[in-house]
Amino acid sequence: DQQVKQNSPSLSVQEGRISILNCDYTNSMFDYFLWYKKYPAEGPTFLISISSIKDKNEDGRFTVFLNKSAKHLSLHIVPSQPGDSAVYFCAASGAGGTSYGKLTFGQGTILTVHP
Amino acid sequence: GAGVSQSPSNKVTEKGKDVELRCDPISGHTALYWYRQSLGQGLEFLIYFQGNSAPDKSGLPSDRFSAERTGGSVSTLTIQRTQQEDSAVYLCASSLGASGHNEKLFFGSGTQLSVL
Fold first, then answer.
1. Cβ–Cβ of B56/A46 closer than 8 Å?
2. Which of A100, A104, A105 sits opposite B103 (nearest CB)?
3. Residue B72 pLDDT more than 80?
4. Positive or negative CA dihedral for A41, A45, A47, A49?
5. How far is CA B27 from the centre of its chain?
6. Closest by Cβ to A43, choosing from B40, B59, B107
7. How far is the C-alpha of B80 from the C-alpha of B98, rounded, in Å?
8. Which of A32-36, A101-105, B78-82 shows the highest mean pLDDT?
9. Which of chain B's ends, N or C, has fewer CB atoms near its CB within 10 Å?
10. How far apart are CA A67 and CA A62, in angstroms?
């Protein structure tokens, strides 16, 4: 049972344009959501997060939007840069547990930003 | 080192053999996690250590998997009688363990395990 889903395995964007990565979840107990970025041969690194009490969180070029009623979140990167090319994982936590690091991850979306 | 260190970076083994994967967390981090990523899949939670508390083993896929954390620092993930489906990247992460949603996980580069 895939509780966090990233239905787009890959996304290709031109440099300077907006990248939109999407994520859906099924467990209504999730109350905290995170995005991680992963380069080849490296571990994932934290990018941005959002609590379920908010619907938007912005950090520089990165903005995460949360639609609780639709159980959907998205990551917007604008403007996109070639260095943003990586695998992006959506993750969720808080499903009734006390381990905030016990994250449920999506399958990842490979973002390629072309110069 | 400043980051989470994992060894070996690559491990090739034969079906049925036991393997041990090592993780050195960031100094001062009390929480340690093991995840694995199979081909085409997201990261799958395996086990979580927090201080001296009993570990959360709820993600271990079978009793062939076990993990220890000695002295609240280094951790070893052991897979006994490896199977081909165990082939994956095994990722270790650590965090301050202060609890709360601002808990940030710092991941190592992982161990690529290949079971032939």
1. no
2. A100
3. no
4. positive
5. 17
6. B107
7. 33
8. B78-82
9. N
10. 17
